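Quick start: what a row looks like.
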Amino acid sequence: MTIELATVDASRPGTPTTSDRILPDTLDGWALFLDIDGTLLDLALVPTEVVVPEWMPAALISLSRQAGGALALVTGRTLDDADALFMPTLFPLAGLHGADIRLPDGRMHKAPRSTLLDPLRVELAAMSRLNPALIVEDKGAGLAIHYRLAPKFGDRLIERMTRFVETAPDAFEVQHGKMVVEVRPAGTSKGTAVKAFLEQAPFAGRRPLAIGDDLTDEAMFAVVEACGGRAVRVGSPDRPTAASAEVDSADDIRGWIERMA
């Protein structure tokens, strides 16, 4: 099975050129790192309204078996939120953009709830009450606000979150995304999560394949490409990307998963 992808011209970062690339038709020797929102699932107006196709959990189990268990979900969601989407199976999982992680042997690290975010929690909650189209997502160790339903607030929110992080740069970073801006723990990323997985069986020694759609995925793209793997971007990038290939939409990824399963 082949999918025509576009590779990224290194001389013109972020500019795709058409060529034939192949998503693997066998997972022997591969380790899979899959983003969720915008990659496995279509984006929703609010995070709680995403739709998981009925066939997908079983299909992901099949892919994991084909890869010898080397399949991990790597997401901005919390571990609990991500697990709820694919219950009852608990895949190896990195949540909160890498700040939380559950390794294949069951060991888990979860960033603690931060009281430093309390003033920002109060402020964003007040903004959301005044403008219900602004959706606040409290992740404990991080805090996100979605403005997809109220894009006019985007610049203001980005500026506010940036100013907050400047007060505690060692503790937090700003994470930009598709119609969302987030304050998240500093020092971790989807890239650090992928590195941690690649040090553990059954991921160790395999060639990594990372698939994602957003700015937060760039960190894992860079790690995967640097160690000889393949990073696939879902959707055309609107800025330079570390991914070496792309597909048009999440439909392409779902189609590949369904056929592989």
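That is the whole record. Residues 118-130 form the longest helix (13 residues). Confidence is low (pLDDT under 50) at residues 1-20.
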